[in-house]
Amino acid sequence: MKFDVFTEMEYIVKSESTLILNINALRTQHQTVLSEEFIVDPYIKVEELPATGGENHMVRFEVKNPGTVKVTYKATVDNSYKIVDYEGQYETPVAQFDHSILPYLYPSRYCQSDKLYRLAHNMFGHIVNPFTKVIALTDWIYRNVEYLSGSTNSETSAFDTVTEQQGVCRDFAHLGIALCRALTIPARYFTGYAYQLTPPDFHACFEAYLNGEWILFDATKLVPLNGMVKIATGRDAADTAIANIFGDAELSSIVVSCELADQGFEPLMYGHIDYTGVAYL
Amino acid sequence: MKFDVFTEMEYIVKSESTLILNINALRTQHQTVLSEEFIVDPYIKVEELPATGGENHMVRFEVKNPGTVKVTYKATVDNSYKIVDYEGQYETPVAQFDHSILPYLYPSRYCQSDKLYRLAHNMFGHIVNPFTKVIALTDWIYRNVEYLSGSTNSETSAFDTVTEQQGVCRDFAHLGIALCRALTIPARYFTGYAYQLTPPDFHACFEAYLNGEWILFDATKLVPLNGMVKIATGRDAADTAIANIFGDAELSSIVVSCELADQGFEPLMYGHIDYTGVAYL
Amino acid sequence: MKFDVFTEMEYIVKSESTLILNINALRTQHQTVLSEEFIVDPYIKVEELPATGGENHMVRFEVKNPGTVKVTYKATVDNSYKIVDYEGQYETPVAQFDHSILPYLYPSRYCQSDKLYRLAHNMFGHIVNPFTKVIALTDWIYRNVEYLSGSTNSETSAFDTVTEQQGVCRDFAHLGIALCRALTIPARYFTGYAYQLTPPDFHACFEAYLNGEWILFDATKLVPLNGMVKIATGRDAADTAIANIFGDAELSSIVVSCELADQGFEPLMYGHIDYTGVAYL
Amino acid sequence: MKFDVFTEMEYIVKSESTLILNINALRTQHQTVLSEEFIVDPYIKVEELPATGGENHMVRFEVKNPGTVKVTYKATVDNSYKIVDYEGQYETPVAQFDHSILPYLYPSRYCQSDKLYRLAHNMFGHIVNPFTKVIALTDWIYRNVEYLSGSTNSETSAFDTVTEQQGVCRDFAHLGIALCRALTIPARYFTGYAYQLTPPDFHACFEAYLNGEWILFDATKLVPLNGMVKIATGRDAADTAIANIFGDAELSSIVVSCELADQGFEPLMYGHIDYTGVAYL
Asked: Chain D residues contacting C, CB < 8 Å?
């Protein structure tokens, strides 16, 4: 499926600053970037950074002089996903996880899974099928946490959200990740462009590692699971921030969009009768 | 300098469990493991894991049957360190950090640097020399945080310690890391064997990335900086736990030691008149 | 019903200290103290303090010289309680609460009801009968929070316990109070001697204000509700600490007991079929 | 000194709600309310509540029907304060505090003094004169915490502010109170109208109990200490909220003012050369 993604961000820079932006569509085996433009106006030479601490494709540049800087990113992406059937499946024992997966079991800045152990086991520990287990915790988040723009900030973590029960997509994702890890299911943060997100913005959801596949889950249920264009994955939002700013620069405006550049899109959401997960590769 | 390091840990295992231990001396360019033994009694085949999310050399094994399991680790290590002079140096701009260093700038589970930004800048922001800056924050921790065994637990983080001002080596390290990151100095957790630590135990301190070198700092001032045998580095204790246990197993006893297997050890601590840091490679 | 209550506490005092103890059985309309002894050995003149910030009967004394101080308290108490029937009852509107009740609606040190608003409403908001509502949240605490000696400390609050799901009687009480207040039900901390508590110790539970009566609830379900001898009530444990110590004194031993001094005790616990609450007056 | 104080608040009420407002100038020995008007439009009969849990004069009323409700409060107040000299004074021992003062030593919702014990002692424990000690901690807050509208919310507590070092008057007051209590100085929250506050709003500061007098301190240094009209005192903002709303009502606009109705006002701020405190009675 093809998507046109677009970001325009304007920064007011007051003193020499370094910006690291994380807005590029990832290039993976099944996500091809057909065309791409990254423009900084006024012109600044940017540096593309190899991935670190997860999947990402960050861009770094220095703004030497105060003023307004506009960043425009456009890409056309052709991506695909895989359907994985979990009917009759059991959880993978920790002894069989590839070593590279282990960091996604540990607690992180916004996902204090160590504090949610009992709660996660009390609520979801009895469910045998791993896919059903993550569906159950995703549904619990969806039913209990209210989506409220502006209700949380960059310090809000899963430990807050599990009790305060309000937040935005980032908070829904962090809570999903923390619950998975508390249940010994590796989980990571997914940030991307999302088709049919209203109002248009970057989106965050999460991936759980089930029997060898990273399966996508979205506790907000705001968008179809098959309309995502992946930007990055990481342990949580600390790894995958859209922008890291060093210096005195402030975002003054942002426009994001994700449009279908293809035909025949059939929205896919998880139901409660089957066991098929969506994996972006 | 040569050291004999030793660990003996006994676990009472109540049901099938997987243990991932992180007690092996790291093999690096300047830390040679001359001899090494890792014994599980009763015998279980163990799996050595390649490093993930930092430097480490973990060992994983499954205990299928309930009972007592004893793990013994012995090694003789020859390691060396480098002295780096920071007199007249300035901080490296973020624009020049290698991409692999960036994750050590971000907040992590126990090092919420995002919450310490103002405090760190109010207290240490005026110091120009980066080595002096980290010495200053290390000294501040040393003077203000009381070393109190048992005063904290596995959930205690830098955000707690900065106010509660009590803790163990792990807490001193987390606070040092959080303050560094808040000051845009990459920092990571260091866990190892430490010569002359009383009572003998694993030790934790931290490394700050100063002009291209990872320099060791220890806010506890409990041991010489040149008596360390590195086990692992990572973002914080979540990455570098001595043991991760999945299942129902409990540590029932532990013995750790680090002895000099050489002659002519001259203890090294940072003073306040020079600018030379210690880097383990 | 008559009970013999007893406390013996030994303090090691290292420098001049003031102790405020809160161990005396309260004298109320329905709790008569038949006989009572409060001995400090070596002898120190004590001062009985009128109640402040709740119901209590504290005793204050100064220890001028270092050494060991032993406090012994013995009393025989005759108390009674009232059975209140809530069948078919509705909640009292806030507009009708007596002004003296209002402080028990506000959040306090260990009962951050302001953070539990959504959670409390999502779980218990639909229950109409106020007694049934508090029974439901008490049962939820009982089923989900594990009673684990030593798992928490004097800083643990309801906001921690609701997620970490472990604690002691104090934590169970704080969570019950916080949930009630989040549901606009006034609630307060109750500390006392408890008959049949094993091992013997001071006990904590809570009272909810239902249609004009303070009804006792105990989410630990460790003891009969009709075997309590009230020491104090207050907003939370900050108001009703067994001991407040100013200076350098440390508790070195404690013995507490509560024995029946009567016959025909019939243990009373709330069931799920009736609507009758227990009120100590 | 005479002041005209004024509040106009508009609420959009969506369902039957009870409002408890805490905006009336307190009537005390030295604060006389010369004239006063409290108008609810459309007309609703209000109930004046006797003080509970501190000093306050709350007003309660029920809004039965959805719609807009406007509350207007106007008063002319004649108040005076006392100057207390602390030169050469020592702290009052706890053994001599009146029992009614003790609750102001305990931690409360927003003032977790129990967590600030070491920090407070490390920073201010060496200062002998109690007035100088509170001046020192007030100055520390003033120098280190940045006054930033909107940077905090109704859940922010002293434990957050001591590290995050940003906030509004409420946060400055909570931190001052918590530090005092950690130093065994009773302290309470003070809310009032403040002359020369820009932009005009309600103000919060705190009182410390020094040798028998409640002395006013304001770590924001935004207004003269002698231009305050007291509304309430309490343990913290939980006791003294301007408005407690039960039901679905939202503040849609607010105007507050405090004007001089007299002549010859000479602004008073604490300097660093004398030992004279201001006490409102």
From this structure: 18, 20, 49-50, 52-53, 58, 60-62, 93-95, 99-100, 102-103, 105-109, 112, 114-115, 154-155, 184, 238-239, 241, 244, 246
Q: How confident is the model at residue B281 (pLDDT cuts 50, 70, 90)?
A: confident
User: Which of A118, A159, A166 lies closest to C166 in CB terms?
Assistant: A118
Interface predicted TM-score of the whole assembly (ipTM), two decimals: 0.95
CATH class of D81-237+266-280: alpha beta
Residue D272 has pLDDT above 90, yes or no: no
CATH 3.10.620.30 in chain D, residue ranges: 81-237+266-280
CATH of B81-235+268-280, one of 3.10.620.30, 3.40.30.10, 3.40.50.880, 3.50.50.60: 3.10.620.30
pLDDT of residue C260: 97
The separation between CA C233 and the C-alpha centre of its own chain, rounded to angstroms, equals 6
- B70 neighbors B13 (Cβ within 8 angstroms): no
DSSP-derived letter for residue D247 is S
Per DSSP, the residues of chain A read -EEEEEEEEEEEE-S-EEEEE--SPP-BTTEEEEEEEEEEES----EEPPP-SSB---EEEEE-S-EEEEEEEEEEEEE-EEEEE-TT--PPPGGGS-GGGGGGGS-BTTB-GGGSHHHHHHHHTT--SHHHHHHHHHHHHHHHSEE-TTS--TT--HHHHHHH-EE-HHHHHHHHHHHHHHTT--EEEEEEEETT-SS--EEEEEEEEETTEEEEE-TT--S-GGGEEEEEEESSTTTS-SEEEESSEEEEEEEEEEEE-SS--------SS--EEEEE-
Q: How does pLDDT run across C240-268, given as a tens digit for each residue?
A: 999 999 999 999 999 999 999 999 999 99
Domain with CATH 2.60.40.2250 in chain A: 2-80+244-260
Place of tokens 């009895």: A126
Do D109 and D67 form a contact (C-beta atoms < 8 A)?
no
Out of 2.60.40.2250, 3.30.479.30, 1.10.1040.10, 3.40.50.2000, which CATH number does the structure's domain D2-80+244-260 have?
2.60.40.2250
Q: How far apart are CA D5 and CA D113, in angstroms?
A: 33
- For the segment D198-205, the average pLDDT, to the nearest whole number, is 97
Averaged pLDDT of chain D? 96
Fold (topology level) of B2-79+244-260: Immunoglobulin-like (2.60.40)
CA torsion C272-C275-C278-C279 (nearest 10°) is 150
Q: Where in chain B is the domain with CATH 3.10.620.30?
A: 81-235+268-280
Query: C154-188: per-residue pLDDT in tens?
Result: 999 999 999 999 999 999 999 999 999 999 999 99
pLDDT at D273 over 80: no
Q: What is the pLDDT of residue B20?
A: 97
Bridge partners for B76 per DSSP: B4, B35
Q: What is chain D's length?
A: 281
Beta strands D213-217 and D202-210 are antiparallel
Question: CB–CB of B164/B180 below 8 Å?
Answer: no
The contact set of B with D (CB < 8 A) is 115-116, 118-119, 122, 143-144, 146, 159, 162-166
Question: Is the pLDDT assigned to residue A29 strictly greater than 90?
Answer: no
Cβ within 8 Å, pair D58-C103: no
CATH of domain C81-239+270-280: 3.10.620.30
Interchain CB distance below 8 Å, A144 and C115? no
Assign domain A81-235+269-280 to a CATH class: alpha beta
Contact at 8 Å (CB) between D167 and D156? yes
pLDDT at residue D226 in the model: 95
For residue C75, the Cα-to-chain-centroid distance in whole angstroms is: 18
| Contact between B230 and B192 (Cβ < 8 Å) | yes
